[in-house]
Design brief:
CATH class of one domain: Alpha Beta
Structural class: mainly alpha
Radius of gyration: 26 Å
Distance between the termini: 81 Å
Strand content: 5-15%
Shape: rod-shaped
CATH superfamily of one domain: Glycoprotein, Type 4 Pilin
Strand order of the largest sheet: 1-2-3
Order of helices and strands: HHEEE
Number of helices: 2
Number of strands: 3
Length: 142
């Protein structure tokens, strides 16, 4: 009787499960790093947008002879043509908070961050830009 050789041309179940596990771990690590990068990118985008509004407010102040009131807020910048963006929302879809100082000579633009609440830490920290100062609370070295 002739012996028939058994030839294995595929992967065993165990080899397949190990491969799927390794790929799963790799994808998980890349995903975590990607989300962290995405959060930092949103913080940077928010700060840049607030700086644009800050510059527009300074132009408005020079042209109009004063800053907008709290009631007028950032919307007056759109009405007067200082900005073209129609919605004043941060990257987390929260409205920016504009407040004029009590003496009427300064302002603050604030984003509540990713947690949408006062305070927070890390990328959930509140972000502010004030007249005469650089960004506060961003944790970004510029």
């Amino acid at each position: 009787m002739k012996k028939i050789k058994k030839i294995n041309y595929g992967f065993s179940l165990m080899e397949t499960l190990i491969w799927v596990g390794i790929v799963g771990i790799f994808v998980g690590l890349v995903g975590i790093a990607g989300f962290a990068f995405w959060d930092r990118a949103k913080v940077r985008a928010c700060v840049q947008e607030m700086k644009i509004y800050s510059a527009a407010l300074m132009d408005y102040s020079e042209t109009e002879g004063g800053l907008p009131t709290n009631e007028e807020g950032l919307k007056i910048l759109l009405e007067k043509g200082y900005v073209t963006k129609t919605k004043f929302l941060d990257p987390w879809q929260n409205a920016y908070v504009y407040t004029q100082t009590d003496d009427g000579q300064g302002f603050m633009i604030k984003s509540l961050g990713s947690d949408k609440k006062e305070g927070g830490a890390g990328t959930a920290k509140d972000l502010t830009v004030s007249s005469g100062t650089d960004t506060e609370g961003t944790g970004i070295e510029e």
